Amino acid sequence: MFEAGIPPAQMLPHKDGERIAHYIDGDGDAEVLWCGGFSSDMTGEKASTIAQWGVERGRRIVRFDYFGHGQSSGKFDEGTIGRWKEDAALVQEKLVRGRHIIVGSSMGGWISMMLALERPQRVAGLLLLAPAPNFTERLLWDGFSDEEKRQCKEQGFLNLGDPEDEGEYLVTYRQIEEARAHLLPEGALPIRCPIRIIHGMGDDVVPWRHSLEIVEQVESRNVAITLPKESDHRLSSPDDLLLIQQGLEELVRAA
After folding, report:
1. Most exposed: 35, 66, 140, 254, by fewest CB within 10 Å?
2. What SS3 state is found at 40?
3. Which residues contact 102 (CB under 8 A, 6 or more apart)?
4. How many CA atoms lie less than 13 Å away from 4 in the CB half-sphere?
5. pLDDT at 1
C-alpha cells in the first residue's frame, strides 16, 4: 500500500499554537490540494490514491488533516467549519505554489468552494467528490427532530453514532451555530474555474441531486458531473478511484 513507505507527517504551526499535520507527495508543475471530509483524515483511500497518482505522474500533491482530525493537534469536538476552512487557507497559503487544483471530498467540497470564491486567482480547477456544502444546516440541523434540536442545544452536542455499535459521532451545537456564518448562498456562485463532480447515486449521506444544484449555481461554463449508479458516499471502489484519477487528468489538461 502506498502509505506504508511514507515518513511521519510534517507539521505546519498555526498562529494559536496548534499544529496541522500534512504530507507533500511528488513534484512537478501541476499542484493539487486535498481537502478531506468531516471526521476523516489524509491517509484514507481516496487521498492516498491521489498522492500515488501525483508521484507516478510528476505532480505535486499537498494533503493535510484539519484541526482535531488525524495527526493534527486539537480536539475534534472543538473544531468548527470556520476553523477548518482557516486550516485549509493556511495550507494553501504556506504550502501550495501558484495556481492549483483543489480536490474536495464531502465537507471538503464545501471548504474548497469557499477557497475558490475567496481566492479565485489561485484556483485552476475543482474536483468535488460527493460535495456537501451547507451540510451542517441542510443535512444535520434541518433533519433533526424537535427533540434532537432541544437535546443538541441543552447538552451542547448530539451523538449521531449507532448505539448498537457503541460508536460515537458527535456533532456539537457550536459547530452547527458557527457554520451559519459560512453557508454558501442559494443563488448564483461566482466560481468560474473548470469543475468536475463525482457523486454516487447510492450515496445515503449526501443526496446526489444536491450536486446537480451546484452545477446550476456555479458560473463556470466548464462543468461536468459523473453519477456512478452503484457508488456510495465513500467513492472508494476501484472504479470510483479510477473516475477520480480521470477527473484529475481532465482538470490538469484544462488548467
Report:
1. 254
2. coil
3. 32, 33, 35, 112, 115, 116, 123, 125, 126, 127
4. 2
5. 44
